[in-house]
Amino acid sequence: MKIIKIAATNGLGNTKGTEFAPDKVVEKLKQEIYLNEAGLKPEFKIESIPVEKSNIEQTNENIYNFLIQNDDIPIIIGGDHSITYACFKAFSKRFQNPGLIVFDAHPDLVNDFNPPTHEDFLRVLIREGYLKKENVILVGTRNWHSNEEDFLKKNKLKNFTMAEIARESLHDVCDSVMSVARLWQACYISIDIDVVDPAFAPGTHFIEPGGLTSRELLYLLSRLKNLKNLKAFDLVEINPQKDINSLTVKLGAKIVAELFL
């Protein structure tokens, strides 16, 4: 498998620090993860996509041009969630009927900015036609803007909130997600670390109490990675500058290790 580092922070200036996550996560992966829970030593080819700090459009173009030629199943490490816009745009050009599973505390549907930020990348992907609204699954949401509430209802997006996950068994929720995702030709999974409760992942800008435990997230990913149409992952919004005892960075490294196929 391949790790692709994208040290981009295009989130209105309020995600500064996430650009350090790719290097820090890879460092922990190399130095502190010996075997994953399947007893395997994860081995990755590591590459980086150039980032233009003052030019969002150029960074998005760099991401698109790189990924449109990628033949591996990549694990992309950001950066903030804005990178998923260009990543999935390239993904949608490589596969017919692609779908996106997003683990996130927030729906990221606030505005219709172009280029999109971490707050609205999903809305723009849908509006521009790169992603069918019926091919979106949100997991772990628990705080959203009224604009997002309106968009969710109007477009009937599949949204497994934390309140719903707490009512239902995690196993049943995962069954529901997989029953939809396996119908797509290609599946992309995006993991915003703030889907995890800040007790387990404090190193992120937008902490939201009441999230998944780290073990619950790992359980869901351990099942989802068995989807035969799974073609890409990304991991975003880890901020080493806000972390405590490297807890979030280490969780990021463990997530990457457990995604090893």
Individual helix count: 9
CA-based gyration radius: 17 Å
Query: Beta fraction of the residues?
Result: 15-25%
Q: Give the overall form.
A: globular
CATH superfamily caption = Ureohydrolase domain
| Distance from first to last alpha carbon | 7 Å
**Strand order in the largest sheet:** 2-1-3-8-7-4-5-6
Annotated CATH topology: Arginase, Chain A
Largest sheet: 8 strands, parallel
Count of the separate structural domains: 1
- Total strands: the figure is 8
| Assembly annotation | single chain
The run of helices and strands is: EHEHEHEHEHEHHEHEH
| The first-level CATH class name | Alpha Beta
Mean pLDDT: 96
SSE map:
Layout: E1 2-6, H1 21-32, E2 45-48, H2 56-67, E3 74-78, H3 83-94, E4 98-103, H4 121-127, E5 136-141, H5 146-155, E6 158-161, H6 162-167, H7 170-181, E7 186-192, H8 214-224, E8 230-236, H9 247-258
Parallel strand pairs: 1-2, 1-3, 3-8, 4-5, 4-7, 5-6, 7-8
Helix pairs in contact: 1-9, 2-3, 3-4, 7-8
Give keywords.
single chain, 261 residues, 8-stranded parallel beta sheet
Architecture overview:
- It is a single chain.
- This protein is an alpha/beta fold and 261 residues long.
- It has one domain: Ureohydrolase domain (Arginase, Chain A, 3-Layer(aba) Sandwich), CATH 3.40.800.
- The model has no long low-confidence stretch (mean pLDDT 96).
